[in-house]
Design brief:
By secondary structure, this protein is of the alpha/beta class. It folds into two domains: about 270 residues, Rossmann fold (3-Layer(aba) Sandwich); about 100 residues, no CATH class. Helix content is about 25%, strand content about 20%. It has eleven helices and 16 strands. The strands form four sheets. The protein has a ten-stranded mixed sheet, with helices on both faces. Strands 11-12 form a two-stranded antiparallel ribbon. Strands 13-14 form a two-stranded antiparallel ribbon. A hairpin with a 5-residue loop joins strand 11 and strand 12. Helix 9 runs parallel beside helix 10. The chain is globular, with a radius of gyration of 22 Å.
Length: about 400
């Protein structure tokens, strides 16, 4: 396996548990002096085969591999930072253009399989051409000879302790035709992440030209044509809505909390700050005034406060760290009072070993940065499930 956009190693952890060996990894964050994520990765896995350089400068991966993976940057597809659709710049955004670096390396090496992860908004980006960016990705992988499966997965639906929705993309070189059977039972994702039912099936063609897709796909659409699951081959895609099937034990936020005695004092909410937390978490319908004097009406729904511990947690976001009150940070009730989640608990909710992000090769990592890592990370156990199916198929048909 070769890993791009490696972060702190979630893909590698999950795939190692599934029997995969990593021969190359790359992690580089632009516009920052200290490469925190790469440091954590190297501290845990060592430097052999690891690259900390701009991926656009990597002409080729210097070894052979069967599988190329990556949780490629999602900032330009995400609306987590803003309520404005203008924040979603898609493939034209500063980090969205990194898709073409992935495709360049795919064209250079043509691995047997590709396994990518991103925010589910990718399927409907950008706002003025719903689904265009994903259509370009499908068509460009198809032009390299790949059949592509995708699935929007909520980790909690498969027993994990976090409601984290992400799109998984698995591409197979010289793969099968798009069919309902491949999508519902026989495909990699269907085997790794079973479904109980499906509906609203539809098929369509993307057309032969990437330029045509870029200029015309999704125009005047209110919603994306790409549903929660799909498969693409030879210019045609089949897509449908699916329901997860899981019969095992489901875990919760409470299953992953540490004892109160192990929580530092700064994680407890001060009594005089509780009202601010309640306001930010609560429902609002109010007039607000911009610095320029412009007035507008602001409204949003309320959130459960504190977070219930008898169900999976909400999605961890990159702003989870820090002591300031926030609408999106987790707060739980304890015997010592209301408190935020410590980094070790955030690691557990993503399936990382305890203390995984505590140290980098240059020393200690701050708690705020550790929380940021987990907001960017993936659920390791889901990667392991997909990795086991990929490994089985390569062993069966090398």
């Amino acid at each position: 396996m070769a890993e791009l956009f490696a972060g702190v190693g979630g893909f590698r952890l999950g795939l190692a548990a599934a029997g995969w060996s990593t021969v190359y990894s790359n992690q580089w964050e632009p516009s920052t002096k200290r490469q925190h994520a790469s440091e954590v990765y190297a501290h845990n896995f060592g430097l052999e085969g690891h690259s900390n350089e701009d991926i656009s400068t990597v002409a080729a991966i210097p070894c052979e591999f069967d599988l190329l993976v990556g949780g490629f940057p999602c900032q330009d597809y995400s609306v987590a930072k803003s309520n404005s659709n203008s924040a979603s710049a898609g493939l034209q955004g500063k980090k969205g253009v990194l898709w073409w670096e992935i495709l360049r390396l795919v064209g250079t090496h043509h691995p047997k399989f590709i396994f990518l992860e991103n925010v589910d908004r990718l399927l409907k980006s950008p706002s003025l051409q719903r689904g265009r960016d994903f259509a370009i990705m499908l068509a460009s992988l198809g032009a390299e000879g790949y059949t592509v499966e995708w699935r929007v997965v909520n980790a909690a639906d498969y027993g994990f302790p976090q409601r984290r929705r992400r799109v998984f993309i698995v591409a197979r070189l010289n793969g099968p035709e798009a069919s309902e059977r491949m999508l519902t039972t026989d495909g990699v994702l269907a085997e790794a992440l079973p479904i109980s039912s499906w509906s609203n099936s539809s098929t369509d063609s993307l057309g032969p030209s990437l330029l045509g897709i870029s200029e015309n796909f999704g125009k005047d659409l209110k919603i994306s044509p790409f549903k929660s699951a799909g498969i693409f081959a030879n210019g045609q895609y089949l897509t449908m809505d699916v329901v997860a099937k899981f019969e095992g034990v489901k875990t919760t936020l409470g299953d992953n909390l540490v004892a109160d005695v192990d929580v530092p004092e700064e994680y407890f909410v001060a009594p005089d700050a509780i009202a601010k937390w309640q306001y930010l978490k609560g429902a609002k319908s109010e007039e607000r005034t911009h610095a320029s004097g412009y007035k507008w009406h602001y409204a949003e729904g309320g959130m459960v406060f504190p977070d219930p511990i008898d169900r999976p947690s909400r999605t961890i976001l990159t702003g989870e760290g820090g002591t300031s009150p926030s609408r999106f940070k987790h707060v739980v009730e304890s015997k010592r009072g209301l408190r935020r989640l410590v980094p070790l608990e955030l690691e557990r909710l993503n399936g990382f070993p305890d203390g995984w992000t505590a140290l980098g090769s240059s020393g200690e990592i701050s708690d705020a940065k550790r929380a940021f890592f987990m907001g960017n990370a993936l659920v390791v156990g889901l990667i392991e499930r997909v990795g086991k199916v990929l490994a089985k198929r390569i062993r069966k048909n090398p």
